Amino acid sequence: MLQCVFFLSDSGEVMLEKQMTAHRVDRSICSWFWDYVLSQGGDPSKILPVIASPTHYLFQLYRDGIIFLACTQVEMPPLMGIEFLCRVADVLSDYLGGLNEDLIKDNFVIVYELLDEMMDNGIPLTTEPNILREMIAPPNIVSKMLSVVTGKNSNVSSKLPDATASCIPWRKTNLKNASNEVYVNLVEEMDAIFNRDGSLVKCEIYGEVQVNSHLPGLPDLTLSFSNSSILNDVRFHPCVRFRPWESDQILSFVPPDGEFKLMSYRVKNLKSTPIYVKPQLISDAGNCRVTVLVGIRNDPGKTIDSITVEFQLPFCVASANLTSNHGTVNILADKTCSWSIGQIPKDKSPSLSGNLVLVTGLEKLHMFPVFQVGFRIMGAALSGLQIHKLDIKNAPTQPYKGFRALTRSGEYEVRS
Amino acid sequence: MAPPPSTAQKSPSPSQPSGKSEVSDLKLQLRQLAGSRAPGADDSKRDLFKRVISYMTVGIDVSAAFSEMVMCSATSDIVLKKMCYLYVGNYARCHPDLALLTINFLQKDCRDEDPMIRGLALRSLCSLRVPNLVEYLVAPLGSGLKDGSSYVRMVAALGVLKLYHISAATCFDSDFPVMLKSLMLTDPDAQVVANCLLVLQEIWNLEANKSEEASREREALLSKQIIYYLLNRIKEFNEWAQCLILELVSKYIPSDSNDIFDIMNLLEDRLQHANGAVVLATIKVFLHLTMSMNDVHQQVYERLKAPLLTLVGSGSSEQSYAVLSHLHLLVMRAPMLFSSDYKHFYCQFSDPSYVKKLKLEMLTAIANESNTYEIVTELCEYAGNVDVPIARESIRAVGKIALQQYDVNAIVDRLLQFLEMEKDYITAETLVLVKDLLRKYPQWSHDCIAVVGNISSKNVQEPKAKAALIWMLGEYSQDMPDAPYILESLIENWDEENAAEVRLHLLTAAMKCFFKRPPETQKALGAALAAGQADTHQDVHDRALLYYRLLQYDVSVAERVVNPPKQAVSVFADTQSSEVKDRIFDEFNSLSVVYQKPSYMFTDKEHRGPFEFSEEMGNLSLGQESMDNTPRYDESDKDLLLGTSEKEENGAPSANGSTASGYSAPHDYNSSLVSLSSQTRPEPATSDPSLPKHSSHGNIAIDDLLGLGVPAAPTTPPLSLNPKAALDPGTFQRKWGQLVISISQECSIDPQGVAVLTTPQALIRHMQASSIQCIASGGQSPNFKFFFFAQKDDKSPSYFLVECIISTAAGKAQVKVKADDASASEAFFALFQSALSKFGML
C-alpha cells in the first residue's frame, strides 16, 4: 500500500505530490531523499530503487529527468511498488507525448486526474492505458483546437468506459470507427559480451512482438511462428490465452485497441554476431596506444546502420588524442569517448586510433575500458524467428495486415 | 500535503510566488465568479482553479480560499469538479469547520446521473477524513454499494475502509462489513470484488485482536470456498487485484495434496504474466504451498527458475533489482539448481553497481566443479574494471570461491596474478584473501609466499591488507628471508601507523618471528614491545605488556601461547544464521527480501505483516553472544532501518548466530545496548540500504541525555537512582534467576498513558527519564512486556530488576520487583509506580 507519490525534478525540486491515504506524508521526506541522493554521488539513476528513510520506505524510479518517489510504512511486495511507478511513468509519457519537467508542470491537472484513477487508497487500480484514455482524454492538439472552436472545454468523455464492466478488461466492447488494420512488429535486441581475446562470452536476443491493432468489433486473432521452438522465457500480455500456446505454440488473443506488447521472449546461445569490434591497447612509459577496428562479421543480408562505439576512458588518463578514418569521434567532458560510424563503407574498414597520455607517475594502464557497441538492422530479426501467419476471426471485412522486423543492439559489449 | 511548515522551510525561490498577496487576489477573483452564470464563466473559473491547484502543488498554503472555492463548486464541468475535489480533499482536514460547507454539494453530486461524477464525489466525500462529518457519509456509502454502476460500487467499497479508519464504530453500526461480504461473493465486476476483499482483509486484520468474531471472519476469508471462488475468476481481475488475491492464497492452508496441485495448475500461466508483481506473487504461492512436500518443492524451484530469469532480463534496472533480490534468496537456498545458469549472472557494463553486487554474490554461491573455471575467468575480467568497488567485490568473490574448495589450484594462480597487476586496491584485496586461503590451505604457502615476499610493504596502505601482510610475515617468517628486516622497518615507523589493528598484528608477528629466528628479530621485538607499552591504545598496550611478561616468565611458554601449532580452518563462520534466512524466505515477495533482513528487524511492530513472531511471554532468551561479547555501545544508527528499536550488531561476525527473539533491546545510549536479535552482514558496504546517522532515535537519546535527572529532581524521592546504570543481559538473566520476588503488585495506568502506549518504545523512553532502564521489551498492543532495571546511586551499587506486564485493554500493569537490597525495594517500587503513573501526561 503506497501512502504517497512525489514527482521530483533532477535538481531535487518537488514538482507534484499526491497523498493516497489518511496518513499524510510530509514533504520533508523529499529533502531527506535528496540529501541521500547527494550523499550517494548525486546521480539519481544510480540510487537503489528501494531504500529506507528514518520514517518511510521509499521506492524510486528515475526516468527522463524525473524522479518518481513513492512512500510507504507498511510491508508490501517491492515489485508492486516499482511496477506501479513504471506504469505511472509509461502512462504519463504516453499521455503527454514524452516526459520532462515542463510537460508535467503544464499538465499537472491531467497528471492528478490520472493518478486519481490509477490508485485509490494506496492500491493500484487501473493502469491499462487504453482504458485510462477513455476516462481522461489526452491533451492532444486536436482536442485543444476543438475546445477553442466549439467552446466546449471538457477533455473527458462524459461516458464511463464500458471496459470497466466487460470481461475483457483491456478492450472496449464496441469499437466502431477503427481503420481496420493490424501491424505486427518483431523488435529484437541483441545482448553480447566479448572477452579481450575476442571470444564470445554470451550472446542472447531479447525480443518483443509488438502489435498495433485498429480493428472494429471483437476480433479474435491467432498468430503462429514457423520456428517457435527457439523461444525461451516467454511472457505474454494478459490478452493471450495460455492453453493454445501450451499445446501448439499459437498465440490466440483478442487485442486491445492501439499499440501494445503482445509477447516478449528470449533466444539464447546464439553463435553469430553481425559486427566485430577489435580494440587493442598497448601501454608503455606513461602512454597508451589505442586502435579499434570495426567490421562486418556475419552479414545479416540487410544494411547495418547507426553503428556507434562508446567507451569510458579510465580516470587515470590525463589526455587523449583519437582520430578515425571514418565517422566522427567525440570525447565528452565526463571522459566518455563516442565514435559514430553510421554505415560501414564498402571500400575500407573503419578504424580508430590514437594515443592516451596517462597521469604522471603511472607507467602502464591497468584499468581497461569496456567498449559498448550500438547498431541497428532494419528488416531482419537476428534470432531467426519467423512469423508463419496471422489469422483474424470475427472481422467484418478482411483487414490490412503489416509485418516488420528490426534488430538493434542491446548490451553489446567488448572488453579490452 | 502542504503543511505550512514545509513552505516555511523552503526559502522561496524567485520563480515561486511567496503566497500572501496572490492568495488574497485569487480569493477576490473567485468571489466575483462564484454566482456568475455568464457564458465563459467556466473558462475563467478553470483558469483560476488551475492557479490555485498549481500553488498547492508547489507547496503554498492556499487553504485561505477554501470558502470561495466551495462557492464556485456549483458547476457541471467535470474537470472543474475534479480540481475542486482535489482541493477540498487537501484542505478539509485542517479546516473541519469549513469542510461542512462541502458536504452539501458532494452529497448532491453523489446523486448525479453520471456514474463518473457519483463515483468521484463519493471518493472525495470519503477522503475528507473529518471525524465529525461521519454521519453524512453513511447514507451515500450505503447507496453507493448498491449503485448500478460498478465504478461507483468500487469506489464505495474503498470508501468503507476510509470510514472505518475515521470511525470504526459507525462502520460496524451501519453493517457495512456484512454488505461488503455479500458484494464480494456476488458482484459481477471483478474490481468491485477485489476492493471488497481488500477492505475486509484490512478491517478483520485490525479487528482480530479485539474480538473473537473478527478473527473468525478473518479465518473465513481463507476458507477453501472463498479461495476457490477467487481463483476461478482470477483472469477477470486486473493485474493488481491478482496480486492481492495471490497474496491471500499464499496464506491458505491446503487440505491435501490434490488441493495443492489444483491450485498450482490453475495458477501456472500466471508465471508468464507481463507484470513482475504478479509473477512474484505467484511464485510465493507456489513456494508456500509446497513447503511441506520436499520433492515437489525442488521441482517447483526448477519451474520457477525460467520466469524469474526472464524477469531479470527484461524491464528497467529498478525492476530487475527487485527481482534479483528475490532470485538471490532462492539461489542462496538452492545454489545447485542454478549452477548451469551462471551466464545469467554475468555483469553487464551498464548494470548499476547495486545490481552487479547482487550478481557477484550469486555467482559466488553457484560455483561448483563444473562451472568454476568459467565463473572465475569472468570474475577476473571484472578485476580490471573501471568500477573500483566492483573490482574489489569480484576479487573477494574469487577468494570466496577458492574457500569453497573448487579448483583451488587455478584460483591461487589467478590471485597471484592479481598481485602482479600492481594496483594498490587490487593488491590490498588480494592480500587479505591470500591470508584467508593460507589459513585454510597451508599447503599452498610455498607458492604464495614466494609472490607475497616480493610485495613492498610501502605499497600496501589499507589497514586490513597491511595486517594481512604482517600476519603472513610472522606466520611464514622461516620461508621469507627478509621477514625480520621488513618487520623491523615497519616497527621503526610505529608512530606513523594509525590503525591499531596493524599495530596489534605487528606485535604478534614480531613475537612469532622471534621464536623462529631469535637472533635476527631480538632487536625488532624489543623495539616493538617498548613501543607497544608506550602506546595510547588500550589493547595494543595490554598485548605488549602481556607478551613482555610472558617472555619474562618463560620463553617456551610464550611460544606455546603465541604461536601454537595451528590446524587449518575448515569452515569459516557463516555470517547470516540459517534461522534468519528461513525467516526472510517466509516473507518472500516483501521488502524483507530486498533489505536482506526479516521484517522484525526493520518494521515497527504496528506495521508488521502477518508473519508474527511467536512471542513467548516469560521465556526471555537473551542473546548468547552477549555472554562473550562485552556490551556494546553502538552509537551509529547505520543499520537501523526506519529507526525502530530492533538493532543488529554491526561488529565482528559472531559464529554462534543469533537468537531471534521477539523482545527488542531498547535504545539506551546511557547504558549498555544489547541487541537480542543479531545478524551480521558480511559488508556494511556502501550500497547497502544503510541509514544516515541522524535517525529520530538518536535525537531522542540526546534529548534524554540533556534532560536527565530533571524529571526526577522535583519529586526528590528518598531513594536516588543512578542515571547511567548499566547492566548486561547476561548478568540480568543471572540475577533474575537468583533473586526472589520482593514485591509483586498490580497497578493501574492512566488512560492517557494507555493511549500513548502503542509501541513499547514510548514507555521505554518515558521510564528512562526516571533513570529506569529497559533491558528487553516485547509484545504488541494490547499486551506488552518489559524488563526494566535500575541502580541505586550510591557507593554500593545494588540493582533493582522489574518485570512489568501491561495490558492496555484493562489499563493495568502487573509489576514484579526483585532487588539486590530487598529493604530498598519498597522505596524503589514507589518511585517506579510514580514514574509509571506519569506516563502519558505531558
UniProtKB/TrEMBL annotation, chain A:
Domain MHD: 179-415
SUPFAM superfamilies according to UniProt: Second domain of Mu2 adaptin subunit (ap50) of ap2 adaptor, SNARE-like
GO CC, any one term: endomembrane system
Keywords per UniProt: Membrane, Protein transport, Transport
Superkingdom per UniProt: Eukaryota
Broad class of where this protein is predominantly found: membrane
Subcellular location: Endomembrane system
Gene Ontology terms: biological process: intracellular protein transport; vesicle-mediated transport
Name of protein: AP-3 complex subunit mu isoform X1
Automatic annotation (TrEMBL), chain B:
Beta-adaptin appendage C-terminal subdomain domain mapped to chain residues: 719-837
Biological processes per GO annotation: intracellular protein transport; vesicle-mediated transport
Coiled-coil region(s): none
Subcellular location, principal: membrane
Keyword Cell division: no
SMART domains with a match to the protein in the record: B2-adapt-app_C
Any one of the GO CC terms: clathrin adaptor complex
Biased composition (Polar residues): 653-662, 669-681
Composition bias, Low complexity: 7-21
Signal peptide region: none
Pfam family, one: B2-adapt-app_C
Sample GO molecular function, one term: clathrin binding
Top-level taxon of the source organism: Eukaryota
Region of interest (Disordered), ranges: 1-24, 647-698
Subcellular location: Endomembrane system
Keywords: Membrane, Protein transport, Transport
Keyword Membrane assigned: yes
Assembly: Adaptor protein complexes are heterotetramers composed of two large adaptins (beta-type subunit and alpha-type or delta-type or epsilon-type or gamma-type subunit), a medium adaptin (mu-type subunit) and a small adaptin (sigma-type subunit).
Family listed: Belongs to the adaptor complexes large subunit family.
Function as written in the Swiss-Prot or TrEMBL entry: Subunit of clathrin-associated adaptor protein complex that plays a role in protein sorting in the late-Golgi/trans-Golgi network (TGN) and/or endosomes. The AP complexes mediate both the recruitment of clathrin to membranes and the recognition of sorting signals within the cytosolic tails of transmembrane cargo molecules.
Protein name (record): Beta-adaptin-like protein
Gene source species: Canna indica (Indian-shot)
Taxonomy of the source species: Eukaryota, Viridiplantae, Streptophyta, Embryophyta, Tracheophyta
